[in-house]
Each structure stands twice: as structure tokens, then as C-alpha cells.
Amino acid sequence: AQTVTQSQPEMSVQEAETVTLSCTYDTSESDYYLFWYKQPPSRQMILVIRQEAYKQQNATENRFSVNFQKAAKSFSLKISDSQLGDAAMYFCAYRSPNSGYALNFGKGTSLLVTP
Amino acid sequence: EAGVTQFPSHSVIEKGQTVTLRCDPISGHDNLYWYRRVMGKEIKFLLHFVKESKQDESGMPNNRFLAERTGGTYSTLKVQPAELEDSGVYFCASSQYGFSNSPLHFGNGTRLTVT
Description:
- The complex is a heterodimer.
- By secondary structure, chain A is mainly beta.
- Chain A has strands at 3-5, 10-14, 19-21, 24-26, 33-39, 46-52, 60-61, 64-69, 74-79, 88-95, 104-105, 109-114.
- In chain A, the strands form 3 sheets. In chain A, strands 2, 5, 6, 10, 11 and 12 form a 6-stranded mixed sheet that branches. Chain A has a 4-stranded antiparallel sheet with strand order 3-9-8-7, with no helix packed on it.
- In chain A, a hairpin with a 6-residue loop joins strand 5 and strand 6.
- Chain A is globular, with a radius of gyration of 14 Å.
- In chain B, 0% of the residues lie in helices and 49% in strands.
- Chain B has no helices and 11 strands.
- The termini of chain B are far apart.
- The interface between A and B is medium-sized, with 26 and 26 residues.
């Protein structure tokens, strides 16, 4: 089974600064998808960004971007110009066509944004 | 558009009792998923419905868990009898398509506490 590892249980960043959340995964497959989900204190989990493994270009969504290193099996999330509303639990997830429709999640990183 | 809704938001029951969780997906979403997060661990996939059919139930922990989706609309997840290790947050998600890169829309989750 694919495993997703988020080595940072907690991170802190000052408002307007940049923070990078790390994620590594273990797989023998070549075709898969990677996601970052955000769960604010209100608890609804929302999709932040996704990356197709076959694409070399790193995905970006406004202030959110990823550094996808396929050979290293690394998928980090960079948040630029951090805002108070970015405070949340961030989950990295993996999904493969060969493993059904299950999302494999990491344990999450709790991001604190300080004024 | 209404999002994925889950009821109740929080349930506290005693060991041996029965609890039924409900999930209403986004209207028109044929794909419905149940996930669970036990304290301090990863979010784990439980099962996937396509309309009223169980597409993948490989994540269901044991036969104390029964999921249904009669009529292909809302879904219920029954735990009978509940055990202490069943405590956690149960998430429901839905998606319009079943592709691996199709984003999942999550509900707020049901926090189940078994005492």
C-alpha cells in the first residue's frame, strides 16, 4: 500500500511570510495524483491544490504552489504571503488509478499563522 | 450549491451501543466516500459508493460497520455494537466523477466518541 508521510506535525509562520510544508510518499506506480487538502477549525476539508504525476510543471493556485520531485517522491506545499485564514490542518494525499478510488492521506501538519 | 452535509456533528455513545451516521452528498454526485480519522493517525478510506452500489469497501474495518446508500442519494454508516477503538472523526465526501483526479468535496465530519 502507498504511504504518505508528513514529517512536520506542527508549523508556524508569521503573517505575510512564506512557509513550506513537506510531504513524501512511497509508491512503485508511475501514474498517480497528489493533493493538498486544508481543514480549517470549522472542520470542512477543502482541496487546495493537485498535481498529476505525469506533469513536470509544478501546480500553482494563487499563493499556493507545490514543489513536485517525482524521483525523490516528494510533494511539498509552499504558501506565500501567509494570511491568518491559512491557519488550518493541512493533509497531503495520494491517489492512483490502480488502487481504486481511495485517497491515502498523511497524518497532517497543523499550521499556525501569527500576526 | 449546498455542500456535503453530515449528521450528527458529534455523537457520544457507550461501548456496545449502536450509532448511525448520515451523509448527504452534493446533489448530482454519484460518487460517495466514507473516511475515518482516529486520533493521531492518518485519515483512512472506508468505502466508496457509485450511486447505490458499493464500488470498493476494502477499508471497512470489520462487520460491525454497515454502510448503505439506498436510492443512491444519502448514505448511512452504522456501527453496531460500538467499541472504544471506533472513536474518531468520520468524514463523508462526494465527487461528480470517479476519476482519480476528480476532486472530492468533504463534509464537516462526525466526531464519534465511544466511552
